[in-house]
Amino acid sequence: MAALETTIQRAGATGNIKATREDWLKLALETLISDGVERVRVLTLGQKLDVSRSSFYWYFKSRQDLLDQLLDYWRQTNTRFIVERARRPSATVIRGVMSIFECWVDERLFDPQLDFAIRAWARRSPAIRRALDEADEERVNAIRDMFMSHGYDEVDAFVRARVLYFMQIGYYSLELNEPMSSRLAQVASYLRSFTGQEPSPQDVEDFSRYVEKTVPRSR
User: Fold this and answer.
1) Would you state the pLDDT for residue 8?
2) Average pLDDT rounded to a whole number, residues 44-58
3) The model's pTM
4) Contact in structure between 33 and 51 (CB atoms under 8 Å)
5) Dihedral through CA 10, CA 11, CA 15, CA 17, nearest 10?
6) Beta-carbon contacts of residue 113 (< 8 Å; ≥ 6 apart)
7) Residue 22 and residue 24: Cα distance in Å, rounded?
């Protein structure tokens, strides 16, 4: 949900409009994450927003239209930013992996709660399962291409990409809430493990500086 606040501006009510399109989307996303897709219902959302169903149909054609927009929002945040970071020009493979690491520490780039809400939804819907499989493949392939751009052969690059990506998904799945200080202490070892190369002190310092500027101190 952190990414939502930077992607859409929550407009104030004007005239007789009590809820904006962004209000509906924000509440629908919160509900999807906290309660699952089955609880994303027009009547229930309207009651929470204290507006009538007619307000919903001013912005959306149907409940399915709302669900389609939630899925598109997920694609345009979680998947897009991983792909963009993987494609960012990098002088070394270490720097390339560091770009992807940005997604793991900044929930404006990758929201793990939203990702797992989509994975739960996929257990109920073959169409969402296909969308999820496509997203996983797109993310892994983008990371593979980053490794290949630094001279790794295709098979090695693909395996390294899978290890990097699915390790992080597993990290979220196990809810390993390590302090950021502990994670930073291990970043050189992670970079070494994923690339087979030795990160420089400057690499580690630059990533630590990025984290300090990006991640709330409470984490």
Assistant:
1) 36
2) 92
3) 0.86
4) no
5) -30
6) 1, 33
7) 5
